[in-house]
Amino acid sequence: MSVSEFEIINRYFASRAVADEHIVLGIGDDAAVVSMPADQQLVVSIDTLISGVHFPVQTSAADIAWKALAVNLSDLAAMGAKPAWFTLALSLPEVKHNWLAAFSESLADISSIYQIPLVGGDTTRGPLSITIQVAGYVASGQALLRSGAKVGDQIFLSGSIGDAALGLHLLQQQSDSPAETDYLSRDLIRRLNRPQPRIELGQALSGIASACIDISDGLFADLSHILKASAVGARLQQAQIPLSEAAQQFLTDNPSLRSSIYNRGDDYELCFCVAAEKCGQLEAIAKEHYCSLSHIGEIISGDDLQLFDAQNNRLDYDHDSYDHFMVKHE
Ligand code: ADP
Ligand code: MG
Prior knowledge:
single chain, 330 residues, alpha+beta, CATH 3.30.1330.10, Phosphoribosyl-aminoimidazole Synthetase, Chain A, domain 2, 2 domains, four-stranded mixed sheet, 13 strands, 32% helix, binds adenosine-5'-diphosphate, binds magnesium ion
């Protein structure tokens, strides 16, 4: 490398760090020092994004940075936590200033939008990979868990799902140049590359949702985690599962991709359960956070996920979802 590791850190990361009252000492020493607000607990999560695994190799530096922090913020959202700070471990095959400038600028953008400062990290040479660790605060005992769903709770989903899976499909079809030629494709690909973590919604659900998870592996797989942790089953109404206009339009021409909507796709919406007597509070939350909340089903006893059509016929569905250690050769 023609520049040192320290120059990279100073030029691209330390200089862009956002100030925050709880950060006593940020980037530059052997470690960061942070203080805790009174009566709060720390919620901690980490996610790695590897080139060619978590994003197509042609993904832009700006999109990679956005997604790396967004997927971590989504885990905080699912816990009902307020963003506190994050660290970044970056492995780079080579120093490319254009790439680093675009990456660090986009990272600074999303970190300022969600008010989460970068407090430290590690920079190494190796295959392109980005690991981000996030920390958030919740009032003591108030974190939203997967394990609280009860029989009779209603199941809700924020926003819409499916766009990210279809966006990935589009990119895989056209490996050389991104398929951003028409509006429909552009919207779907943007949803894949620029997920919007439901941070405010997650915090608003604290004290209301009995269980919550973010959709990172597909709706059925992620809801199944709630069912397992809570030892319950669920009935879902397929017709009520919200798809975006772009996804609906795309599926009209490509009906065979429908199962990928439910079993794939990092949409980063929140799926959560609410006791019947608290459901009345959701309308105000949806309005305040400009976020649609769809009622998609109900928690039942048992341990399986049942899917029904509008005429109440039980539907069969594909149980397969993405697993890094069980990659199938299709
Ligand atoms: P050490 O050898 O003590 O681990 P480093 O050289 O790895 O120190 O890091 C020096 C300082 O720069 C530390 O404060 C570290 O947290 C920070 N740092 C290193 N890489 C990054 C990065 N990619 N983003 C943000 N901070 C970083
Ligand atoms: Mg280090």
